Please model this.
Amino acid sequence: MATIHHYLFLSAILFFIGVFGVLFRRNLIVIFMSIELMLNAVNLSFVAFARFTGSMDGHVFVFFIMAIAAAEAALGLAILVMLFRNRATVQADDFTLMRD
Amino acid sequence: MELALFYIFGGLAVLGALFMVARRNPLDGAFSLIVGLCALAGLYAMLHAEFVFILQVLLYAGAIMVIIIFTIMLLNLNSKELKEPPAGRVKFCIVLAAVLLGLYAFLSTLSRLPVKDSFVAPTFGDLDKVGQLMLSAYMYPFEVISAVLLVAIVGVVLLAKKVI
Model:
């Protein structure tokens, strides 16, 4: 019998894999996918709480998060394409315009 | 049986996520992330979340990952750009993530969340039930979301233009 603790622990593991990806990787596309992974981990805990408290509000919140994630994906990837057009790179270390 | 399914889907999700972070080629990572997202959809089905299950397959594993893969193919990265400089903070990051996860595991033992399987109605999470909730209690956020999506569409068109 899978309890809420199983789901919350799985959600935490997925979230920390996403955090690790953002901290460790230098490729902007992989960083972007790690952010999507973190959003999914939060969605899982929302659905688990909805199931084990018997209220469906969590499902509505997941819908809103997915809508925001879709908007973020479209805008973020458009910005990524613009950056690649201007600088011809997708490595986060190469974007040091503000530091130089 | 249910626990076995949970471990299968959960293991697939974790493996897909780990591969996504570990693979050097972002296209490999995107495909393994799709596997992970589909495994998460299976977990949603186990949690009686029919509406979220459909959205996960259609919107995440479908639409969003298609945009990401399309962008990766559009950028057409060569092998020089795929080569990342060796990161010196790997050990620090692994230790940090392990410490935070351990802290979470410790804190979760102190919690008093319901452990027993609470009964839910067979219609829990159905499309019509969630839809009714979304258009009654959450009507204003729903309308704001449509405005956000409209702004995002206009913004993407502006960004994608070569000359503004």
Remarks:
- Chain A touches chain B through 68 residues (CB under 8 Å).
